Amino acid sequence: MLNRFQFARLRSFRRAVKIDEQSSRPQVAGARVVCIASGKGGTGKSVMATNLAVHRARLGERVLLVDFDAGLANAHLLLGLAPKFDLGHVLDGQASAREALVEGPAGVRLLSGGVGRQSLVNPTRRELDRLFRALRPLENDFDLILIDHGAGVGYSTIAHLAATSTLLLVTNHEVTALSDGYAIYKRATVVNPDIRVGLVVNRAPDEHLAMAAWDRFRGAANRFLGHHPELVGWVPADTAVAQSVQLREPVLLSFPESEAARALVKVAAWTPLEHARTTSAFYEKARRALR
User: Fold this and answer.
1) What is the pLDDT of residues 143-182, one digit of tens each?
2) CA 194 to CA 151: how far, in whole Å?
3) Where are the domains of the chain?
4) CATH number of this structure's domain 33-289, picked from the four choices 3.40.50.2000, 3.90.70.10, 3.10.20.600, 3.40.50.300
5) What is the pLDDT of residues 14-72, one digit of tens each?
């Protein structure tokens, strides 16, 4: 039978072992990660991503926007920034992910995708694994990470979609945009059956056309897949957006009372943005999806 001294030592040992076990377990990152994608170019996806990032930052969140467009990045232009480093530098080991960040409006941090970087256009599985591993520490530094994907379904996009819990799908009322957006939605739900997808009809001439586009999308998805995304809302075509692009300033800041700005605020209030966490670190899941 243990005496009081031996019992105290045993209890202390067990406590130390428990603490050591807890510290050795992988820590789930605090950041919520949301992918933003579209089936084709020209839907205004990057404009939406930059404005959502700014709005959420103005609400007091630590927001990171990652421009994952394959060598055709433009988020830095829309935010009026000139980054010294980008994803290509991180991939090549010329800068760490944290060193590549630049601060933008409202305190948003941007990791630029780089322009004309061939290494980002068609990266190998090994290169993506190395890049995802480099990006993993950023999850501990932010409340919300928005990933702006290039148009289409590239290898990196598929890995991201397999890892995320939340996808914001941007389309417009045109038939080609709806068709390509449907292809993204179908692929996302195949690689990640539990993914929550919200659809935004962007640059719509009016509400009637926006809702007609939503009805077509929902009808096709129900017919061929047996399910459909949520309708987050619609954003009207607005000359204020084009003017804000020329000013290199998000429309929420340059023309906050415009119709587009008011609609974007409503999109940014989509409830799943508050709960976009995964059971393990996002980029660890993305790395596993590469295998």
Assistant:
1) 999 999 987 778 889 999 999 999 999 999 999 999 999 9
2) 22
3) 33-289
4) 3.40.50.300
5) 444 343 333 344 444 479 999 999 988 889 999 999 999 999 999 999 999 999 986 67
Rounded to whole angstroms, the Cα distance separating 93 from 84 reads 14
pLDDT of residue 20: 39
Of residues 236 and 11, the one with the higher pLDDT is 236
Tally Cβ neighbours within 10 Å of residue 38: 27
Strands across the sheet containing 32-37: 102-103, 109-111, 63-68, 144-149, 32-37, 166-171, 196-204, 230-236
Nearest to 186 by CA among 27, 52, 39: 39
User: What's the CA gap between 59 and 156, in Å, rounded?
Assistant: 30
- Whose tokens are 């990933």? That residue is 147
SS3 3: coil
Q: Residue for token digits 């068609």?
A: 122
Residue 244 near residue 255 (C-beta atoms within 8 A): yes
